[in-house]
Design a protein that fits this description.
Largest sheet: 6 strands, antiparallel
Order of helices and strands: HEHHEEHHEEEHHHEEEHH
Strand content: 15-25%
Number of strands: 9
Shape: globular
Strand order of the largest sheet: 6-5-4-9-8-7
Distance between the termini: 49 Å
Helix content: 40-55%
Length: about 270
């Protein structure tokens, strides 16, 4: 009798907790979808992309609005101003970003190429630091931009040692996030990845037309890298052989960053 009562009480307590966690998870999913969007999103588009009903999506958006995480104009929603203090705190205090800046500056100065640091978030990557090279790139890629792992040297190198299951998950996630077409397959992804034994990835005209890029993973104590450093150049300022020749310097930069982070809690 006592055991049954205890079990019932535990179940009743777990119920609201589980519901709260589901609500939080859904809210973060809507928030992430707004981050990926290139322009303000309508309620119907957000609901469809997140696989939620209109009423549920609307309730989530209203809560996020209350905290300033989302703003609304007419019938469209976008990221709100409350993200700026959080972004500032991250850029000023995160040990990865702080340690990477001087290393990126040095490798950009030595190679004349734009040096960038990406960190993995699920099956996407985010630009967290960048130092421009001698030749400006043809596109503006703001810090915090969500990008796929399936396209671009900096993303592909993070999948180079992935298992078959993880490649399947990465393929599905890229399609679900709108980074790839519905026809994208794991076989196509495999063809994009570096050859076996190569410790760097190369890309040309993949994520952006007229852009060459090479990237290496930053060694991690766990053995599974979650960051990559890339060197990028417009095609008129560099060649594939020149970029590949910069691989040793890029490896040294990644190694230095790994050593700096080794003594931190990162």
């Amino acid at each position: 009798m006592t055991l049954s009562s205890t079990h019932s009480a535990s179940a009743s307590e777990d119920g609201p907790k589980a519901a709260n966690m589901r609500s939080l998870s859904r809210a973060m999913e809507v928030f992430a979808e707004l981050q990926r969007a290139e322009r303000p999103q309508r309620l119907s588009d957000l609901a469809r992309n997140c696989g939620m009903s209109l009423p549920t999506t609307l309730r989530i958006l209203r809560v996020l609005q209350d905290f300033g995480m989302v703003s609304q104009t007419d019938k469209s929603y976008r990221i709100g101003p409350a993200v700026l203090p959080a972004a500032r705190s991250y850029l000023e205090n995160d040990p990865l970003v702080v340690a990477a800046r001087p290393i990126l500056q040095q490798v950009a100065s030595q190679t004349g190429l734009t040096a960038s640091l990406y960190t993995r978030l699920g099956f996407e990557r985010i630009l967290v630091a960048r130092v421009d090279g001698e030749s400006p790139l043809r596109y503006d890629l703001p810090l915090g931009k969500r990008l796929p792992l399936t396209v671009g040297a900096a993303g592909k190198i993070l999948l180079a040692s992935a298992s078959e299951t993880e490649l399947e998950q990465a393929t599905a996630a890229a399609i679900g996030a709108g980074h790839e077409k519905d026809t994208f397959t794991i076989e196509e992804l495999r063809r994009r990845l570096p050859e076996e034994g190569s410790d760097y990835a190369y890309s040309e005209d993949e994520r952006a037309t007229g852009v060459l890029s090479i990237a290496v993973a930053v060694p991690h104590r766990s053995g599974r890298p979650s960051e990559s450093i890339a060197l990028t150049s417009p095609v008129e300022s560099a060649t594939e052989p020149a970029l590949r020749a910069a691989a040793p310097e890029l490896r040294r930069a990644a190694g230095r960053l790994s050593e700096v982070l080794e003594g931190s809690v990162y």
